[in-house]
Design brief:
By secondary structure, this protein is α/β, with parallel strands linked by helices. It folds into four domains: 101 residues; 41 residues, no CATH class; 138 residues; 111 residues, Rossmann fold, CATH 3.40.50.
């Protein structure tokens, strides 16, 4: 093994060899976990990122040998359970990722472990439920049902029952559902002339995402308003289901493939027709930009979608660089405390949301640190306290400027941050909504 310390080259990613039977060989996984844990133990650079690394280091420090060989192999799963696949260790901290010869890919090794655990043990009803975002959304947003669902989310007795039966922490603020689903109520304007820029396609297709469709459709409507104001023709993706990120985090890779088989044909058709495909949830964008291409590296349709997929602010700021974005902002935003989601940071697109808010005249305090929520992880009773602990530095830094708005491209992270901030006069608004406000659009 090379003794070269560190790495100054850009990180690269190997495909996920999940179709190979060896991928599910637990003995080989254990050997790889021991190898990677030993490297992590000697480095400890990622200790501040999440609870997976402190858990690992505590296991080592409390072992008889104070080395990884002293840790019981069964305790490796304690580390796996703490990883929520934010990918920050790989993209921002670890000096031993490929092309370094040590070839450390901590998150995808954790993914492999989760996939093996799912294959051998399955998943609890709660975890299957929370990762079935489409099924939950369709049921909870039924007009007759939605009022009862939303009332139960605020009812202390019902939340205590959810805590005891489903182990969903009663203190976690959960998003409400909306019966006026985005895909049912959206009226995209496709009538504008297509104006391609040097950097940007001149027409857009919107992949709504489960969250925007069922929980906060206003984000999607505001995105359509931004596109219409800038005279960019827009359509909705003809058919969509969940991107698969919740199932990926569960380790259910077969379910990810089934969702991919529904989504990709529609998305690939749009990609080949020259559309920029926009998603307003960073985890969904990352799924199409990174995880699916790594799971299906030889699928031409998946690779076409990868090239056509854009973060909304990545697209808008590229549009600005093309000289095709209107800057006729009318309403001052004041002070915005803006949190950069982990799944956006690891896309390596730069701080485009911050740039757009500053272009609109906002005074932006930007926080680049994990909020600790991560999808369903921070909802669960066993992780809630840890999620609040991880988020403490973010809560403090977001509150310090006494902002007018608290914002994050990840809407659930913003809700989590506002909860952690406690008493605050700040409004929670998505960055897309803030830009709509700045334009003075209704």
């Amino acid at each position: 093994m090379s003794l070269r310390e560190g790495n100054l080259e850009a990180p690269t990613r190997h495909p996920i060899d999940w179709k190979n039977p060896d991928f599910y060989n637990e003995e080989k996984l254990t050997h790889e976990l021991e190898r990677i844990f030993d490297i992590c133990h000697g480095c400890r650079r990622c200790v501040s990122l999440c609870t997976a690394f402190p858990t690992l280091f505590d296991l080592v420090d409390e072992s008889p040998t104070m080395e990884v060989d002293g840790v019981a192999k069964t305790d490796y799963w304690k580390v796996v359970d703490e990883c929520y696949l934010c990918d920050l260790c790989y993209m921002t901290k670890c000096p031993y990722v490929p092309p370094h010869p040590w070839n450390v890919d901590f998150p995808h090794t954790m993914l492999r472990a989760k996939a093996i655990k799912f294959k051998t043990e399955g998943a609890a009803f709660r975890d299957r439920l929370l990762s079935s975002t489409d099924a939950m959304g369709k049921l909870a947003s039924i007009p007759v049902v939605v009022q009862a669902v939303n009332a139960s989310l605020k009812s202390k007795p019902m939340r205590n029952l959810m805590g005891s039966v489903l182990r969903i922490h009663p203190d976690r603020r959960l998003p409400e559902y909306d019966s006026a689903k985005f895909r049912s109520t959206a009226r995209p304007n496709g009538g504008f002339a297509v104006r391609d820029g040097q950097k940007t396609p001149g027409k857009v297709a919107i992949y709504a995402t489960c969250y925007v469709n069922y929980n906060e459709p206003g984000i999607g409507h505001d995105l359509l308003k931004l596109l219409a104001h800038n005279e960019i023709p827009a359509i909705l993706v003809e058919k969509e289901v969940c991107c698969g990120m919740p199932k990926l985090e569960l380790g259910d890779l077969d379910a990810v493939e089934k969702l991919k088989e529904t989504n990709i044909p529609h998305l690939a058709k749009l990609a080949r027709e020259g559309y920029a495909i926009l998603t307003a949830v960073p985890s969904c964008t990352l799924m199409y930009k990174q995880e699916l291409p790594l799971m299906f590296p030889h699928d031409a349709d998946v690779l076409a979608v990868k090239e056509a997929m854009w973060d909304p602010f990545e697209y808008l700021m590229a549009r600005n660089a093309d000289g095709l974005l209107k800057t006729d902002f009318k309403s001052p935003l004041g002070k915005v405390s803006y949190h950069v989601p982990c799944h956006q940071r690891v896309q390596n697109i730069g701080n485009k949301t911050r740039d757009a808010l500053q272009l609109a005249g906002a005074s932006v305090t930007m926080i680049e640190r994990c909020s600790g929520h991560d999808g369903t992880w921070g909802v669960k009773s066993e992780h809630f306290d840890k999620s609040m602990k991880i988020g403490k530095p973010v809560f403090r830094q977001m509150a310090e400027p006494q902002p007018d708005y608290v914002s994050s491209d990840c809407a659930i992270a913003a809700r989590h941050i506002l909860q952690g901030m406690g008493d605050s006069a700040a409004q929670k608004q998505h960055p897309i909504t803030l830009l709509r406000i700045a334009y003075g659009l209704e």
